């Protein structure tokens, strides 16, 4: 590096930061500094220029885009960026990106699921234990000073021996399976394709999985095929003692149906980190002790963000130096 | 066996109560208005006591029941039974090991996740209707955290096995080193606390282990450390723990047991880094039935002169 010190600083590669005004990258100073020292980050919201003209002016130089959270990347936006070659997604889910349009343009997409998988899996297991053992409800019982009055807290249900059905056996599903195996649960799964390297029982569809499980854990991406994949039929198959844990996307579940089933005791309980219309959560759930509600926080740890930053910087650096990317989304 | 008098120390399980009523002459101690008169009147017919984690058979009770032959505890913990006195008088003692091991271990992990990932706090937040788009709060990752276990018996080992699935390095302290395990042994609780992120109490309560988690241990655990207690309330110096939590000298706590159940220190109710449970370690439908069956099985075996199922003394 020493020999280059006296030369002009190389023009940094441009990366478009694509975000809704209410979203931004986490305020981690070392990440932002690192990012800005290696790349020229274009942020339309930090410019006084109107969005459209800002975008048009820079379009020909933008080869890479960094979308924040769920900010949409539509085919219209892609059309306005003719030089775009790379999308570095910052979330595990990719339903906000027009993947078919990317495929036909040859635009590569990298995702962040490996940065989050452990934290999401931990959250799924935590929610499951909480629902079965009534941890949050019992904590309310104690804080409400009810214990000295009522002496006994109602019994929960044993986790060990439960048949757990995992919907989606990607990085998150595998981490969930690994954890719950240690609790004595039997694992089965469904996925677009059977995974030969996975030792668990495979079902071709969610309904059959539900019929043979006591717990359903949703870890798959939201696509046209998986929209409302957990519907009335699936919930009926899961049964009155069944528990649903959703750490995927709210719309994987027919939420109206779920609420009705829970309120009427048609299923045994639910642990939810995601909802169809965040941050709105059906109020009927607030009075239920067999439901645990989390505000889309499954990935929210400093460690996950650190891993995410490494992944973002790693992918961008690799791209601009023509090296293999770190976490390309396969078209499997 | 209907003529055999059995004294049930406190309410613990409707199914157990029902079955005891069917098979024996059951005396419900908590319904007796004058306890000492009751004991004098019935002392010659009571041959068994059924106790649990709250109430068992202390020296006074044992002395008052000259015909007592067996104390069957609806728990694995024996701290409410005067074991020395029972040995002295040739009274048999049974408990409920193994059947509750998994549930207690599950709850320990559940508490770790609930404290570190702030699950109860998050649930409260959502139910309050305060969740706004774009808002977020960081919690702490559980995977990979160092877990230190006090007491590597059945429950301690079950906790270790589960935590390992989360890639948690495991270390422990116990009376003697367990050379057959691969986990790291520390000869003192303070050293264990200094070298872990999450400290779990999983040993039995004896005179030696009372207040085993004291000020020194709490200080060693430190401002980022979390204490999980699924043992007995008296394992922890509760006032010390409370002030450490209030003053943020310790990172958080998940407590299923307290020194004076069902009383819980008021100061804890305002904290968002604690999870408080009403002694539900073995509290599942499945396990309580298995525990009840074990109590009944032990009593039956005793009165039919067969070997006891799970004798302690």
UniProtKB/TrEMBL annotation, chain A:
**Record InterPro entries:** D-isomer_2-hydroxyacid_DH, D-isomer_2_OHA_DH_cat_dom, D-isomer_DH_NAD-bd, NAD(P)-bd_dom_sf
Question: The D-isomer specific 2-hydroxyacid dehydrogenase catalytic domain covers which part of the protein?
Answer: 54-329
Keywords tagged on the record? Oxidoreductase
Q: Which CDD domains match?
A: HPPR (cd12156)
- Domain D-isomer specific 2-hydroxyacid dehydrogenase NAD-binding, first and last residues per copy: 125-298
Give the UniProt family note: Belongs to the D-isomer specific 2-hydroxyacid dehydrogenase family.
Name-wise, this protein is Glyoxylate/hydroxypyruvate reductase HPR3-like
Which organism was this protein described from?
Hibiscus sabdariffa
Organism taxonomic ancestry? Eukaryota, Viridiplantae, Streptophyta, Embryophyta, Tracheophyta
From TrEMBL, chain B:
- Kindly give the Pfam families that the UniProt entry links to this protein: 2-Hacid_dh, 2-Hacid_dh_C
Which domain of life does this protein belong to? Eukaryota
D-isomer specific 2-hydroxyacid dehydrogenase catalytic domain location = 12-312
Q: Which UniProt keywords apply?
A: NAD, Oxidoreductase
Q: Where is the D-isomer specific 2-hydroxyacid dehydrogenase NAD-binding domain?
A: 109-281
The keyword Acetylation belongs to this UniProt entry's keyword annotation: no
Which InterPro entries did the record assign?
D-isomer_2-hydroxyacid_DH, D-isomer_2_OHA_DH_cat_dom, D-isomer_DH_CS1, D-isomer_DH_NAD-bd, NAD(P)-bd_dom_sf
Q: Which PROSITE patterns match?
A: D_2_HYDROXYACID_DH_1 (PS00065)
Which family is this sequence assigned to?
Belongs to the D-isomer specific 2-hydroxyacid dehydrogenase family.
Please state what the protein is called.
Answer: Hydroxyphenylpyruvate reductase
Species for this entry: Hibiscus sabdariffa (roselle)
